[in-house]
User: What shape does this take?
Amino acid sequence: MSELRTLIAAAREGDARAWGLLVGRFDKWVWANVRSYGLAPYDAADAVQTTWLRLVERLDSIRDPDRLPGWLATTAGNEAAALRRRRRGEHLCAAPPECDSGEDVVTTVLTADTVRKLRQAVGELSEPCRSLLRLLLDAQQPTYAELAERLGMPVGSVGPTRARCLARLRAIVSGANP
Amino acid sequence: MTPEEGLLAALRIAVGTDPVPEHVRESAEAAFAFHIPGAVLAEPLPRCRTAGASRGDPGSQLMRFEAAGSVIEVELTPHGDRVDLAGRLTPAGPAEAEIRTTETTLRRTLTPTGQFAATGLSPGWLSVVCHPPTGTPITTPWIRTRR
Assistant: This one.
């Protein structure tokens, strides 16, 4: 039985310590997923709390505990996107996620080895990718206009550069680096 | 989540420049208090938003959830900075309802027609749990009320 399966089974039986271990294992993961949507800390905290409430309400019906990291990422992303829409005055009803996004560098990020690979990959990037990623990861979450000013590029180039740099990073981490 | 957002999330953890605030971690741990072992989660029915719902109040939200052959209806009506709740369980029968927010839990005995209500709730998150005298509790998902 996997460790995750054991923890979830114990939490279902009311073991608060098991729940605490689940939170300790995934709270950075959930927070990081929500923050990647550009939410302010107050809204990010709200979306994170929602994600954990969703897990509590579905604790008894989880079929495959080993897919929990993907489920948390999908749920956190949906809640963050919904909150972002609310802040923009849009109103949509989103169904809860039923599945994760499959195996990927992202869903295996919680291993120490993947963290090491990501850090190493950032170091292998050339400019402007290295500076752009450093700014994107800033807790202050700069806007595209601020990024453009600090990197000395047109605002319209920030999005395509961001996409190109992340694709480059993904290629390095996955070993597909040409 | 797009692959780009997922990768950025992974980087945030790897680089460690955006740590989880302590109060966020505490809220996550506290969420476990809302676990009801064995409860059936009612799934939302398609009609998720109804302007001018059954009581005709502008801005009210009517939601319906179904599980195990029962339907829980929840209507939320904002009043200033508070929210009123009117609900109904069908088919009606003797049951208790718990109206839970992240701050408090209110208990109501359902009327013979399955109705229950609460006024002056804080905006934020709430869920309703119906407890038949015998059988499995039925809970709605957590619902975000306006603020």
Summary: Residues 125 and 144 of chain B are 5 Å apart (CA to CA). Residues 3-34 of chain B form one domain. The interface with chain A takes residues 1, 3-15, 17-21, 23-25, 27-29, 31-32, 34-35, 37-39, 41, 44, 48-49, 102, 125, 127, 139, 141-142, 144 of chain B (CB under 8 Å).
